[in-house]
Amino acid sequence: MSQGKTAKYPKVLIVEDDPIISKSIKIQFEKINYVVKTVASVKEAWDCLSEFKPTAVVLDLLLPDKNGFEFLKEVRESEKWKTMPIIITTNLDTEEDIDKAYLLSAAEYLVKSDLTLVELVNKVTNHINLSTYSQKTLS
Amino acid sequence: MFSWERISRNIHLNILFLTLVIITPVIIFIFYLNLTQLKRAEEIEIDRLSNTANLISTSYIQVVEGARQLLITLSVSGQIQEINCSEYLAGLLSKYQRYSNISYANLNGEVLCSGVPLVKDVNVSERLFFKSTISDKDFSVGEYSIGPVTGKPIITFGFPYENEQGQLQGVVYASIDLNWLSNLTKNFEVDDKVQVLVLDWKGRILANYPDQTRMLGQTFPDISDSGIKETSGVDGIERIYAFEKIGTLKDGPIVAVGMTEVEIYKDSNKEFNKSIIISLLIAFLSSIFGFWMGSLILKRIVAELEKIQELRRSFVSLVSHQLRTPLTGIKYLSEILISQSIGKLNSKQTEFTKNIESAANRLIFMVRTLLDISKLELEKPKLDLEKVNLSEVFKQEKDNINQLFKKSKLGFKFLNKKKVVVYADVKLMRQAVSILLTNAAKYSHPGTTVFIDIRREEKICSVRVINTGIPIDSNDLILIFDKFFRGKGAQQKNEEGSGLGLYLCKLIVEAHGGNITVSQKNNGETTFIFSLPMV
User: Fold this and answer.
1) CA angle at B25 for the pair B19 and B26, rounded to the nearest 5°
2) Are A98 and A127 in contact, with CB atoms under 8 Å apart?
3) Total domain count for chain A?
């Protein structure tokens, strides 16, 4: 991947422990030329955050080392990443989880099985566009 | 969720009822024991009354015997034949103060000697003691009278006086001062609550305690020789009296010892009331303790049940997640394949991949439906109630499945244009409406119209979804809302159904306090009617 492409296109970090879903979402983002990195745990996500500098994070909730909510909370508490759009993608859909996600300032709560890949990627793209527009306006 | 408040209301009543069921026979038994004790106490009191009467009677016998001995001595001494007999009798009077007078009368009743000096001639021939002594030639007793010489209330004892040849010459007699007799009762140390009377054979009061002399000479209304009798005294107060005759004299005096019922039962009633209060207190405390213990045990059980429910809920949610994750994988991969972004597919491959995607979607839908069902089955769902315009819900849900309507060229019409607003969980209501409309669209004959009729009927809102399509077997109608049930017609027409939709629909309507039914006409017109409360 060239440095030019990395600078030009948004970067999405996918934190998802199911390899098939992770791979599928990656393919769909790459179709629209987004730069994608996939990790399968919270630890890996933190490890690559500073280096990869994602525009947005697609975050699953049930992860092998930590709960996705913990990652969300930690990110929101860090000065550097607190405004980054984080989109929860999960197959859990209890009212408690949805409320918790929005309380922790998740950009959106998406139930993977209810959406097509196109719909999922479109929703994430919207949030990235909105975030980019806001940053430009503010700067 | 198992709500303590929700079930405890009835459970608390149940515990209370159970405690009372256990306690009541105990109270009845204690009551019975106390009642027996009360009766026993009454018997003891009445026995005590009889014993007192007996005791007092015995004491009075000594008075009577004293009089007899005195008169016998007087009769045999010959002193009454002496000229100074009155002086002799006066000497005796000063010695025996109980007597108000001691006299001697001849056979005509003329008093010849008197301890109290005579101021005029006195004749006692009409007096009972005189007549009895003359006729029986034996020691006799008279009745209440006022002494003709002393003017004091008296009772007189007489004894025949015979000469040496045994011929009856007259009667020696001694009169006992009734005031002295009444004072004598003081010595018996009887309770103030007890009334002691000495009566003559006619029932006239010779002595009276504790009122002393107040009632002397008055007639006791209902006299008896012996035994127990409940009757009114001269003061009109009802008492239980124990009667006992003094000695064996004919027409001899009688002792009556009386006590009011209130006084007789006072102590035993006090004891009875005390034990009943203690028993009730114990019963009350036991009830409180039982209630408290029962509640504590129940709380523990409910907490356990809540824990189990929570585990089940988490389990269902987790199982649903675990099932949906691989299905999502299949769905996403199918989508990528169908989009041909990673390589071209021929038409057969495209068709089969679409089939895979469709199957994955059906399974995902079924898992979601099962999860919704389990939520509604497991607990009384927490409804997020808000004002819902039902026509709007129908319109929106119809738009969501417009493809199905278009496919069969179905019409969609409201029979009633009135706006009906109900309080409902909009998310669940949409789900129920979606199920009914999807079914109507799937099973209607092409070109027909699905009618919606929403009406407010007093306190309920009734909603009818009417379509004309493949008829439902009459045997299937009653089973159509059962879990996993699919009618024969439905199976032939559409193999994609899960048999869960109408069951979920029923659960949603019932969770709102309503009900759902289905009816069918011969022409295949099927009507699903559900009602919701307006409040």
Assistant:
1) 85
2) no
3) 1
The reply to whether residue B332 touches residue A92, judged by beta carbons under 8 angstroms, is no
| B19: its two tokens | 């405690």
Cα→Cα distances B513→B435, B469, B532, Å: 19, 30, 6
Does B332 contact A114 at a Cβ distance shorter than 8 Å? no
Rg of chain B over all Cα atoms, to the nearest angstrom: 55
Probe site for chain B from A91, A99, A119, A121 (most B CB atoms < 10 A): A91
Contact by Cβ (8 Å): B341, A31: yes
Write out the DSSP string of B443-454: HBPTT-EEEEEE
**Taking the complete model, does pTM exceed 0.80, yes or no?**
no
Nearest alpha-carbon partner for B52 in B163, B247, B194: B194
Query: B319: nearest CA in chain A?
Result: A92
Asked whether the beta carbons of residue B321 and residue A62 sit closer than 8 angstroms, the reply is yes
Contacts of A32 in chain B (CB under 8 A): none
Q: Is the predicted ipTM greater than 0.85, yes or no?
A: yes
Range of the domain at A86: 3-138
| B367-391 confidence digits (pLDDT tens) | 888 888 887 876 667 788 899 999 9
B175/B159 Cα distance (integer angstroms): 12
Tokens standing for B395? 């319109």
Q: What share of chain B is helix, strand, coil (3-state, %, to 5)?
A: 50, 20, 25
Q: What are the tokens at B162?
A: 């015979």
The domain that contains A14 carries what CATH number? Answer: 3.40.50.2300
The full set of domains in chain B, from first to last, is 51-259 (3.30.450.20), 383-533 (3.30.565.10)
pLDDT 10s digits, B443-498 = 899 999 999 999 988 888 999 999 998 888 878 888 888 887 877 666 666 556 77
Instruction: Specify which residues B269 forms β-bridges with.
Output: none
